[in-house]
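Narrative of activities, Objective 1.

The group set out to show that a structural description can be obtained from nothing but a protein's sequence at a throughput compatible with the screening campaign. Below is one input-output pair from the validation batch, recorded exactly as produced.
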Amino acid sequence: MTATDSKGNTFTREGAGTLDFTLRPELRWSVGKPAWNDRNARPQGTLMGVQPGSGDKVPLAGRTVEFSRLPDRTEATSAVTAADGTFTGAPYPVAAVGEEFFGTFTEDSEEAHGTDSTVSRVYEYQPRRVSITAAADKTRAQPGETVTVSGRVVDANAAGAAVGDAPVKVSLGRDGRGSEVGKVVTTAPW
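Output recorded for this entry:
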């Protein structure tokens, strides 16, 4: 191998191996946060090519990134990167926090060579803020007496619209051991 630096110095070395000027793929993505009204994870992120030596990053446009649901890598989908290397995949229905998804990209061409794979987990849902008003039919109850609590749950972000089929925990206080005395009820459908 013979190389010349920027000052005109030339160096020669035998048995130096092969220089690789192809980009190394770097996949950065997440599944985002599902919301109460859209319980889907959407793989989104960027696919960049890391230049050898300098470490500079350039977008890898028009590439296909593949996704699947863990643990058994089912429900495979893919997304194609835009000119800036960004992508958004198809939605995955999410049943619970903690679900995991696998994303991978592989290429072996003159421009890029290698594989990058990562796992992304659903850590939380985007919360929904509601307002609750409630009143009991008694201010004080004796042991064994029934207390009726009635109220209303409204969505302040939807012009005060009633929230139907929502679980609400109603508590009347604490027992002698410090545990909350209460019951989870569901609001009426609207």
